[in-house]
Amino acid sequence: MKRLSLIVVLILAFVLVTTACQSAAPAPAPAEQQPAAQEPAKQEPAKEEAAAPAGDKQLNMVTVVKIAGINWFNRMEEGVVAWGKEKGVNATLVGPAEADAAQQIPIIEDLIAQGVDALCVVPMDPTQLDPVLKKAMDAGIVVVTHEASNQGNMDFDIEAFDNKAFGAGLMDRLAAKMGEEGEYAVFVGSLGSKTHNEWVDGGIERQQSAYPNMKMVGDKNESFDDAEVAYQKAKEILAAYPNIKGFQGSASTDVAGIGRAIEEAGLQDEVSVVGTSLPSIAGDLLYSGAIDAIGFWDPAVAGAACNQIALMKIKGEQVAVGSDLGIGGYNKLIGAGNVLYGDAAVYVDATNAKDYPF
Does a structural domain hold residue 44? Predict the structure, then answer.
C-alpha cells in the first residue's frame, strides 16, 4: 500500500513539473508582428502626370508648299521651324521637286497615313487638291491653306492681305514718286489671273479717288510672267507715250523687265516703276533707281500664321474675323467665314530691301 501511494505521488509531481514548463514557454508573436502579415501600402490616387493626357503630346504639323528648294519657300521654312520651336510643336515643311499639284498629292497622302495633327498647304491648284484635302479632314487632320481663297476643303484659308488694298498701297508709292500727276501704265501676268487683276484694279481705284491728276494710258498689258515680254512691251509703251511717268507691275518679273527698259533709255530719274516682286528678282535695278519700290509679303511670317491658326483650331480656340494671331501683320484678321486676311504687306525700296534676303 505504501508502494502504491509513492507511485501516485511521483506521478502527480511529474504532471505538476510538465505543466509548469509549458507555462514558462514564450507566447507566439501576435499576428500583426509577423513579417508575412504586413499590410500593403495604401495606393495614392493616380496623378495626371503618370499618364500624360493626349493634349500634352508633341503635335506634328507639316506645311506642304508648291515646290521645295526655292528662295521663297526656303524663307517660309525658316518661319515655320522657328514658330514650332517657340510653341513646342514639331513643325516641318516639305514640297515636291517641281511646281506640280500632281506631285503634292502623294506627299499629302503619305502625311495622312502618318497621322499628322495638322496640314498647312500652299496649293499649286486648289481644285486638284480638294479630294485629298477632304480625305485629310475626314481623318481628323486640321487643314489650313494659304494663297487659296477659293479652296473648297479646308478649315481655314489665310491670306497675307486684302488684294485690292495691297494694289492701292503700290499705287500710293507710285503716286508719291510721280508727284501725284502724269501718265502711267499697268501690267498683269495674264488677264485671267485673279490676284494680279485685283492688285491692278485696287491701284486704279486708288488713283481715281485720291490722285485725279494721274491718268492710266492704254489697257492692262499682259506679260505672261515673263521678264522679256515685259521688257519689250515697256519699250513699246515708252515709244507710244513719250510723256509717261510711271508703271505698276503685277507678276514678280514685271518690274525686272520694265526696269531694264527704263535703265537702257536712261530714264531712271524721270519714270517711276513699282510692282509686286522680290528683292532677289528686282536685284540691282532696285539699287540703280530703275525700279523705285516693290511690294510682297514675307513667307516666313505667312508660314507661322498658317500654323498658328491650325494650333488654335486644335486647341479649340476661336478663329474668326477680328482674331489676333499674336504675329505681326496678323493681329486683327479681316475677311468672311473661313477665308481670312491679314495686313502683312511689305513694301521696300533701296533703303531696306536687304532686310529681306529672298
Answer: no
Instruction: Residue 193: name the closest of 276, 268, 262, 116 by CA.
Output: 276
43, part of any domain: no
Query: How many structural domains are present in the chain?
Result: 2
| Strands of 232-282, DSSP E | 244-249, 272-276
Is there a domain that residue 350 lies in?
no
Residues with Cβ within 8 Å of 8's Cβ and at least 6 positions away in sequence, in order, are: none
Q: How far apart are CA 225 and CA 310, in angstroms?
A: 32
Question: Does 233 fall in a domain?
Answer: yes
Q: Are 188 and 200 in contact (CB under 8 A)?
A: yes
DSSP code of residue 174: H
Residue 146: what are its φ and ψ, rounded to 5°? Answer: -140, 140
Q: How far does CA 242 lie from the centroid of its chain?
A: 45
Nearest to 129 by CA among 158, 107, 159: 107
Its domain, for residue 93, covers: 57-154+299-344
Q: Which residues face 118 on adjacent strands?
A: 61, 142
Instruction: Name every residue whose Cβ is closer than 8 Å to that of residue 293 and which is 6 or more positions away in sequence.
Output: 170, 173, 174, 177, 274, 347, 348, 349
> Which amino acid is it at 40?
P
Cα–Cα dist 239/22, whole Å: 134
174 and 148 within one domain: no
One domain, residues 241 and 276: yes
pLDDT tens sequence for the chain (358 residues): 434 344 333 444 443 334 433 433 433 333 333 333 333 333 332 333 333 334 468 999 999 999 998 888 999 999 999 999 999 999 999 999 988 889 999 999 999 999 999 999 999 888 999 999 999 999 999 999 998 888 999 999 999 999 999 999 999 999 999 999 999 999 998 887 878 898 999 999 999 999 999 999 999 999 988 999 999 999 999 999 999 999 999 989 999 999 999 999 999 999 999 999 999 999 999 999 999 999 999 999 999 999 999 999 999 999 999 999 999 999 999 999 999 999 999 999 999 999 998 8
What CATH number does the domain containing 317 carry? 3.40.50.2300
Residues 169, 84, single domain; the answer is no
211 with 266, same domain? yes
